User: Which sequence fits this backbone?
């Protein structure tokens, strides 16, 4: 009798927390038996376009699509037919009042001679230490600083790698693990470096030399199209307050319980452990050790003609005298992102002077404008239409010595409780939008394979 009742009972659905790209992709690839909950009133998470000041489409800092995986390419083209426009990167580094193409390590031409020589000589010493009477290190690099010094040499590290990355992450590079951001750092050949030092650069180096971007609606059109393609739409404005893994129940802020079979988490791993009502103390302790940096950014709308650096896609600023680490332009990539005669920018801040200035927003605003004029991104004649300050908590996970053991400990605990966790923050990792789509698919595949075994 008992067995008969069970056969008529619906198995509890799979619960997916978060309708960012990871959660949406998981729901899409599962196709059935899921509940996708999202605390906001629209899909996309960080990937979200805001219409500011009547007609400026701002994406929450630059969100350019780099598609390498054939399956994800096919999916994106299917849900956004005829929408993707290919762009060639126009990215530069600003140093000593000179703009040099990105990546810095292969484009030192035009820099003051002392800088160029330090960079080239440093790289030669790092790659051919024997020719300079030096000995190549035999032990593996202990941290990110050592790792980039061995790859690029002293000069490139002194002028770009170290100051830029320390400003971005707000911590010293010797706190970061040696393999951090391996995939994202272009490694030019010696030939590329020498050619780049004499002005014959190959600008197509690196993972982001070309990218695609939607013709209409900003980057939001991607998560919106994915949400529209779902058989069961997300439940918006639904915030999970707590989760009991033992009872297989999540509780909403309204008090409503949601029973689940398998749970897929895409909210920040650190926050997720915080809402687990039955997580053991050692898992909470591991989560407390996970560190990340918050990025603050200004969306800026401008009317006017601008200056010599107004139309780069994005610019890296390694020098401490510039308060931001990067400034990009939505409208330089896609002119329709701003009304006619106008331009739009995102200016990103994290470490350095920004930390203190964030306590004084008006001073920070003035400093950002002064620095943008100094860098000739803005001209004196430009009219500033708006400046909106926002933040992205946990934007860059810090790969310090606790990162691997603590993250692994938490992931093992979650896996043993039938929980998948993925995406840039759910997986506590460094990945782009394509990685999020892949992570969501992997979670769905994992659930399907498990159900098949049962
Ligand atoms: C500064 C910056 C620039 C970037 N630029 C690029 C780029 O140019 N190209 C690129 O490919 N990638 C870029 N990325 C990476 C990209 O943003 C991420 O890889 C991607 O957005 C991750 O999506 P996600 O779904 O994993 O996470 P999220 O977008 O964070 O989704 C998680 C979702 O969970 C929801 N949520 C959280 N808590 C709860 C709760 N308790 N209950 C219900 N819902 C909840 C959130 O509202 C959110 O919608 C950039 C990232 C940053 C920080």
Assistant:
């Amino acid at each position: 009798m008992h067995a008969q009742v069970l056969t008529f009972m619906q198995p509890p659905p799979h619960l997916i927390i978060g309708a960012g790209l990871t959660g949406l992709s998981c729901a899409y690839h599962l196709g059935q038996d899921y509940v996708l909950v999202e605390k906001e009133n629209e899909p996309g998470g960080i990937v979200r376009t805001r219409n500011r000041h009547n007609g400026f489409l701002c994406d929450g800092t630059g969100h350019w699509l780099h598609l390498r995986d054939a399956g994800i390419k096919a999916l994106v083209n299917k849900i956004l037919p005829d929408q993707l426009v290919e762009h060639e990167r126009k990215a530069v580094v600003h140093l000593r009042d000179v703009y040099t193409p990105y990546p810095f390590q292969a484009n030192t031409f035009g820099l003051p001679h002392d800088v160029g020589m330090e960079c080239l000589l440093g790289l030669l010493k790092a790659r051919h230490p024997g020719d300079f009477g030096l000995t190549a290190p035999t032990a593996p690099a202990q941290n990110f600083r050592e790792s980039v010094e061995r790859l690029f040499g002293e000069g490139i590290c002194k002028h770009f790698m170290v100051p830029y990355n320390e400003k971005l992450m707000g911590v010293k590079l010797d706190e970061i693990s040696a393999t951090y951001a391996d995939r994202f750092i272009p490694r030019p050949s010696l030939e590329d470096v020498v050619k780049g030092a004499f002005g014959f650069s190959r600008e197509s180096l690196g993972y982001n030399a070309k990218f695609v971007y939607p013709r209409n609606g900003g980057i939001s059109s991607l998560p919106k199209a994915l949400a529209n393609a779902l058989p069961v739409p997300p439940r918006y404005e639904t915030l999970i307050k707590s989760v009991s893994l033992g009872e297989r129940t999540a509780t909403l802020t309204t008090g409503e319980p949601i029973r689940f079979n398998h749970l897929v988490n895409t909210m920040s791993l650190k926050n997720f452990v915080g809402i687990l009502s039955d997580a053991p103390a050692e898992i909470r302790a591991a989560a407390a050790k996970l560190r990340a940096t918050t990025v603050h950014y200004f969306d800026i709308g401008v009317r006017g003609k601008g200056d010599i650096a107004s139309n780069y896609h994005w610019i890296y600023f390694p020098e401490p005298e510039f308060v931001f680490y990067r400034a990009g332009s939505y409208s330089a990539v896609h002119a329709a992102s701003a009304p006619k005669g106008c331009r739009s920018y995102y200016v990103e801040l994290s470490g350095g002077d920004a930390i203190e200035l964030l306590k004084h927003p008006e001073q920070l605003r003035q400093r950002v404008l002064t620095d943008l004029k100094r860098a000739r991104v803005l001209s004196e004649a430009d009219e500033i239409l708006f400046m909106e300050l926002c933040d992205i908590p946990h934007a860059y996970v810090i790969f310090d010595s606790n990162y691997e053991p603590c993250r692994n400990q938490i992931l093992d605990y979650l896996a043993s409780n039938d929980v998948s966790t993925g995406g840039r923050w759910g997986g506590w990792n460094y990945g782009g939008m394509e990685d999020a789509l892949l992570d969501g698919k992997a979670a769905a595949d994992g659930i399907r394979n498990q159900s098949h075994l049962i």
Summary: The first strand starts at residue 14 and ends at 17. Residues 1-8 have pLDDT under 50 and may be disordered. Residues 67 and 207 are 10 Å apart (CA to CA). The chain has three domains: 2-46+221-288+402-453, 49-89+208-219+292-397, 105-202.
